[in-house]
Amino acid sequence: MLLELTDVTVSYGQTPVLFGVNMAIEQGDIACLLGRNGVGKTTLLRSVIGLNKVMSGNIVFDADNITKVPTFKRARYGISYIPQGREIIPYLSVLDNLKLGMSAGQKKYRKIPDEIFEFFPMLKQHLTRQGGLLSGGQQQQLAIARGLMSNPKIMLLDEPTEGIQPSIVQEIEETLKRINREKGITLIVVEQKVDFARQLAQKFFIMEKGAVVANGATADLSDDLVHQYLAI
């Protein structure tokens, strides 16, 4: 098992947000984390990377208990986090944004690996351009590429298709599948679009009120489950 959460409870101040979350992710999985807004999906990802403190329970990654390990060390363990909204540095060039990702991992590259531009050929054309001048879809590709620069074992992606035109969504889906297939990187993707989740992932987890209430193979993500937990 690559990542295992056992009875994980997380609070913001005195307000509990996650309640006894259990989740198991195997090496090579692509898993989608689904649920309505405000159910704790982002908090769960932030807890895995160490940005939210776990009040009780355990997070085990690659056989090591990382529950109390600081964020920068989790990045060196091989956990990469691509946050909602991308959070690239707008005034830095594409190249410098990529170099920032390089600094997070244990393996240090002397230059940007060619595979980055194989996955995201658009970036090679814009290396000197400021990140803030890219389109939303281009910024998302840069954010994913930056996450790859740390040479991760697992990537946590928070709504990578948000606000992006359909043609770029299709590109991102195919690229994520390639990253998983060709590099063996495990993916956990927070997503609102059920169709995207069905096409991308092998596993799903549905959250409601800070807990995982359903999970299984994506082939078993029925319309009844969608209506019960995801319909607005």
Q: What structural keywords apply?
A:
single chain, 232 residues, alpha/beta, Rossmann fold, six-stranded mixed sheet, four-stranded antiparallel sheet, 35% helix, 27% strand, globular, branched-chain amino acid transmembrane transporter activity, hydrolase, ATP binding, ATP hydrolysis activity
Please identify the structural class as seen in this structure. alpha/beta
Order of helices and strands, N to C?
EEEHEEHEHHHHEHEHEEH
Helical content, roughly? 25-40%
Q: In whole angstroms, how far apart are the ends?
A: 34 Å
**Poorly predicted parts:** none
Q: Helical element count? A: 9
Query: Strands of the largest sheet, in order across it?
Result: 6-7-8-3-9-10
**Could you name the CATH class?**
Alpha Beta
| Silhouette | globular
Q: Compute the number of structural domains.
A: 1
Total number of strands: 10
Largest sheet: 6 strands, mixed
GO biological process, one term: L-amino acid transport
Protein name: Urea ABC transporter, ATP-binding protein UrtE
Organism: Pseudanabaena biceps PCC 7429
Family: Belongs to the ABC transporter superfamily.
